[in-house]
Amino acid sequence: MNKVIFTADDYGAIPAIDEGIIKAVNAGKINSVAAFSNHDHFETKIKKLQDACAEKTFEIGCHLTISSGKPVSGRKIGLLTRSGTLSLRKGKYFKKYTQMRRSKHTDRELNDLHYELSKQVEQFDRYNVPITNLSSHHNTLFFFQDFHEIFFKVAQENGLAVRSPLNIPKAMNDLYISMVVLRMFDNMSKENRKCILNHSRNMRTFLAHFEALPKMPIALNTVHYGPLALPTNNLNNEEISSFADEKNLALREDLSVEAPEEEVMEYVFHLIDDDYAKLGEYCNQTKFSKSKYTGIDSSYFDSRMAEQRALLNFDLSALVSFESWKNL
């Protein structure tokens, strides 16, 4: 039986995602929730999670983001933010992760980044919500070494564990980084694109030489994750069920390999309420006019539904033992 942390990402911004996560926690399938703090109605949403799952044992983490929503600090952070041009979008919003650019004024950019990440963490303290860990939306804080150092610094300052930047399967992460760099071609300089690739390739060396490394699981396992590269949601209900079966089989096979007793692995899940008849309605929730939030892609919602179905419809209790972030 393997020691694991099962984390559901992206709580807070989209109601259908929130509902799926709440159902997964209450079904005993998830013991960790990574929540955004940079959206409207944060207090209401996070209290809903706590109240709805009050009978369950689970932990909340801050899902730090520089690629969705808007800065909590209200600051313009280097070239990571943009100002809205429409009346609906007055203020500063984070750019998509594929549109990221680095500022030439690196020191100021890093100072503002540290301030923003700290403010996102402080949101939980403000409303007396205990958190135990930090993660990064789209893994953007793992793109550059100096960003990564700021991420670790914020964790150290708050006494929090962190998500591991080491991914299993490694090939999946390598493909993700390669695709990100390719899609950044028009915005990011050649030098900075090279920095992203080099930091990813040298991640183990970076971790080995980092002083006072925050506590983290042995790695992040993404075997259950797999958004389809589709422009629209066009899987029918039967196809989603078939995809869910494949996901569950892959997860079972992975968990059947017994890990060393001292190792704790984090598995990440991207969930949504499993109601196929409402899939179109759920996709509509991501529109800015409704959510006032950017950076959640509805084209992956059919895959999220497959993940939800795979996790809730099968019993994995004989294969796993839930571990706490506090015990790392």
Automatic annotation (TrEMBL):
<dbReference type="GO" id="GO:0005975">
    <property type="term" value="P:carbohydrate metabolic process"/>
</dbReference>
<protein>
    <submittedName>
        <fullName>YdjC-like protein</fullName>
    </submittedName>
</protein>
<dbReference type="Pfam" id="PF04794">
    <property type="entry name" value="YdjC"/>
</dbReference>
<dbReference type="GO" id="GO:0016787">
    <property type="term" value="F:hydrolase activity"/>
</dbReference>
<dbReference type="InterPro" id="IPR006879">
    <property type="entry name" value="YdjC-like"/>
</dbReference>
<keyword id="KW-0378">Hydrolase</keyword>
<dbReference type="InterPro" id="IPR011330">
    <property type="entry name" value="Glyco_hydro/deAcase_b/a-brl"/>
</dbReference>
<keyword id="KW-0479">Metal-binding</keyword>
<dbReference type="GO" id="GO:0046872">
    <property type="term" value="F:metal ion binding"/>
</dbReference>
<keyword id="KW-0460">Magnesium</keyword>
<keyword id="KW-0119">Carbohydrate metabolism</keyword>
<dbReference type="GO" id="GO:0019213">
    <property type="term" value="F:deacetylase activity"/>
</dbReference>
